[in-house]
Amino acid sequence: SGRLQGxxxxxxxxxQGIGRATVxxxxxxxxxxxxxxxxxxxxxxLENCTAHQVDLRDGAGIEKLAQAVGRIDVLFNCAGVxxxxxxxxCPEEDWALAYTLNVTAxxxxxxxxxxxxxxxxxxxxxxxxSIASSVKGIPxxxxxxxxxxxxxxxxxxxxxxxxxxxxxxxxxxxGTVDTPxxxxxxxxxxxxxxxxxxxxxxQPMGRLGSxxxxxxxxxxxxxxxxxxxxxxxxxxxxxxxN
Length: 242
Ligand code: NAD
Description:
By secondary structure, the protein is of the alpha/beta class.
């Protein structure tokens, strides 16, 4: 039987990229998955999966979602927006959006889903951070790096508060991963091939990570195999910061 047999999991930003790879892996390991995205059409045809159309910037939408879904064993907060630029390139609207989607959305999902986890006395929360956070300062990732550092603080606080009540909360910090949004950012440079090569060349392994390689870590943290880890930063970066 699978590593998540009998468990219910919810994955935000589940339609594409790392979220999508995780949805598919969780299902393959026996979970029933609630996949949340603004593009639920992309999830059509998956078995043991309900696709929910929610804009994660919308607090009322998240509350409605929690009422519809009920108790879950695993909450994977994967949604996040990447903006380029320094502090001088970051108007307050961009700053506010980065906070809303990268930090406030997980504050809201945890507040919505944690009470039922506490009642059951178990639950694993996995939050998507990044190497660009308190782990490392990356040029031109100002709002992104700031909010992904906040994710680490949020993760550690939740872990500390509920460590005696069966709840674990961990953060994933990937390096550069080949996903649709990364490809969009490479295209936006005007020379996709060259940008792809540059991104790959700065990796010690000479290649980007795959969404499946991040999903494998999310699976470990979601499952009972990781029962002795909480409040921890889990780096998966092909040796980038080594
Ligand atoms: P992706 O762009 O491939 O997929 C993002 C998904 O989020 C899409 O399905 C999109 O429809 C959905 N989405 C966007 N805005 C939404 C909203 N407001 N409400 C609901 N859904 C929304 O993304 P990815 O590259 O796999 O990134 C996923 C997470 O991993 C993000 O938090 C990102 O910061 C983090 N991350 C990515 C990398 C990387 O190199 N790709 C590295 C480190 C961390």
